[in-house]
Amino acid sequence: MTALYINEAWWQAVILTLILGGGGAWLAGRAIARTWRGMHIAILATIPMAMAVRFVHFALFDEPLLAPLPWVVEAAILLSLICLSFQHTRARQIVRQYYWLYEPHGPLGWKLRQDAPQQPNPA
After folding, report:
1. What's the average model confidence in pLDDT over 31-59?
2. Where are the transmembrane segments (predicted)?
3. What's the pLDDT at 122?
4. Of 40, 62, 77, 114, which residue has the fewest beta carbons closer than 10 angstroms?
C-alpha cells in the first residue's frame, strides 16, 4: 500500500476503495443484471467508477490524480466486485424466473433441472 498511496493510511485506502467504491460497484453490478443488460455494460461501468474513486483519493488526501498504478489497482478491485455482483444476481434471476428449467448450482451459477422438459427432436 505504501507505493500506491503516499498521503493516506492503509485503513483510509480500504475505506475509500473497498467499502465506498466496492459498495457502489456491488450495487451497480446488481442493478445492471436486474435490467437484463449484458456483462459488457458492467465492465464499461467500472471505468467511471474507478475514476470517481481516484478523484475522492485526490480530493480528500491529496493523492496524485493521474497516477496510473493506483488507478489500475482500484479499477481491478471494482471490476472484480461488479462482475461478482452481476453474476450472483444473474444466477438468482435465472433460477427464479425459469424455475421449471434451472436450479441453483452454487452462489454464482445454475444448472438444468433433472426433471426439466426435454425439447422434441425436429428429425
Report:
1. 96
2. 12-29, 41-61, 67-86
3. 72
4. 114
Average pLDDT, the chain: 92
Could you give the CA distance from residue 108 to residue 88 in angstroms, rounded to a whole number? Answer: 5
pLDDT in tens, 2-37: 478 888 888 999 999 999 999 999 999 999 999 999
Is 2 a domain residue?
A: no
Residue-number span of the structural domain to which 41 is assigned: 10-97
Backbone angles phi, psi at 102, to 5 degrees: -125, 155
The whole-angstrom distance between residue 41's C-alpha and the CA centroid of its chain comes to 11
pLDDT at 8: 87
**Residue 29: inside a domain, yes or no?**
yes
Question: What residue type is 104 in one-letter code?
Answer: P
Sign of CA dihedral 18, 59, 5, 76: positive
The grid coordinates listed for 33 are 443484471
Nearest of 118, 119, 113, 80 to residue 99 by alpha carbon: 113
Structural domains of the chain, count? 1
pTM of the model: 0.88
Burial classification of residue 8, based on how many CB atoms lie within 10 Å of its CB (0-12 exposed, 13-18 middle, 19 or more buried): middle
